[in-house]
Every structure is written in C-alpha cells, then in structure tokens.
Amino acid sequence: MKAFKILVGVIVFFIIAALLGLAWQWLFAQVLPGDLYATLTAVHTFGVKPLSLSTSICGILGMICSYGLCTYTIKL
C-alpha cells in the first residue's frame, strides 16, 4: 500500500510540474522579448544519447516549484 501511495505522489508531482512549466512558458511569452523567450523555452538535451534528458528552463522551473508545493502540502 505504501508503494502505491508513493507512485501516486510521483505522478501527481509530475502533473503539477508540467502545468507549472506551461504556466512559466506562458508568462515568459507575455513578458519577455522574442529572442530571450526563444532561449528560455528552447529544449536543451543533457547527457549521452541513450540516456539523455531533454528539458527547457520552463520545465526546470516547473519542477522546482512543484517540489516546493508538494513538500509544503505534505508538511501540513
């Protein structure tokens, strides 16, 4: 039962992170000029080809905010 609870928590974490990443992307599109917006929302690939991680700055910000939000609500 504990493993199921952890699995659901991880899924919820990534859903919230994706929504927050889209929110950051929308905010950057509204506020920043075109060149800076393109730099922050471009997908960057890290690592070797089979084990690479592709993400943007908006995705990283979304994961950081989601982590903070999830840890805050778990402590309540």
Describe the model.
Helix content is 75%, strand content 8%. The two termini are 21 Å apart. The model has no long low-confidence stretch (mean pLDDT 84). The chain has a two-stranded antiparallel sheet. Helix 1 packs across helix 3.
What's this entry about, in short?
By secondary structure, this protein is mainly alpha-helical.
Features:
mainly alpha; two-stranded antiparallel sheet; 3 helices; flat
Low-confidence stretches: none
For the largest beta-sheet, the strand count, sense and barrel status come to: 2 strands, antiparallel
Averaged pLDDT: 84
**Distance from first to last alpha carbon:** 21 Å
Topology:
Elements: H1 2-31, H2 34-41, E1 44-46, E2 53-55, H3 57-75
Antiparallel strand pairs: 1-2
